Amino acid sequence: MREYKFRGKNKDIGWVYGQIAYDINGNAYIIQEVELDSSYGLEETILFVTMWYRVDKETVGQYTGLHDKNGKEIYEGDIVTGIDYPFIDEGKQNYVGIVVFYDDTASFGYEYQCVRKDKRGISNGINNEFEANENLVCEDLEVIGNIYENKELLNETDR
């Protein structure tokens, strides 16, 4: 069964991972169950506390259930690259992929975006499905950033 979790960026501590909740005002929270160190000398006692972190709702992204070739979890809003065309062409970065959730098919995929001024191939926004092995690893993809912190990866350059 796929693991359902989310991430969001908290202004004080950075990225947090867990379940998502919204209050009546539309504020987003990531909820984590944190295990506490038991200093009471009770060996069998495990203590947990529920932490609520308010996050920028624009940064909330769901975990796809997949990992990149380095074992990194892939989330909505991640920027991925690959080893073959159309990502790389003539030894240069040609496209990146932006991880998205498609409401119409209730599935995750990525949309290509050209980042090289002098080379065109496919159109921006063309989507692709993830290809993963039985261990849910996308062996041809690598997460190189996300759309919230690494917007420079989306700009056209002379790479």
Give an overview in words:
There is one protein chain. The strands form three sheets. A six-stranded antiparallel sheet has the order 4-3-2-1-5-6, with no helix packed on it. The chain is built from no helices and 13 strands. The chain is mostly beta strands. It is elongated and about 65 Å long.
List keywords for this structure.
single chain; elongated; six-stranded antiparallel β-sheet; five-stranded antiparallel β-sheet; 159 residues; 48% strand; mainly beta; 0% helix; 13 strands
Which helices and strands, and how do they pair?
Elements: E1 6-10, E2 14-22, E3 28-36, E4 47-55, E5 61-67, E6 73-75, E7 78-82, E8 88-89, E9 92-93, E10 95-102, E11 107-114, E12 127-129, E13 141-146
- Given the C-alpha coordinates, what overall shape results? elongated
Number of strands: 13
Write the element-wise H/E pattern from the N-terminal end onward: EEEEEEEEEEEEE
State the end-to-end distance. Answer: 40 Å
Rg measurement, Å: 19 Å
The spatial strand order of the largest sheet comes to 4-3-2-1-5-6
Q: Count the helices. How many?
A: 0
**Mean pLDDT over the residues:** 87
Low-confidence stretches: none
Strand content: over 45%
In short:
The protein is built from no helices and 13 strands. The protein has 159 residues and is mostly beta strands. The chain starts with 5 loop residues before the first strand and ends in a 13-residue tail after the last strand.
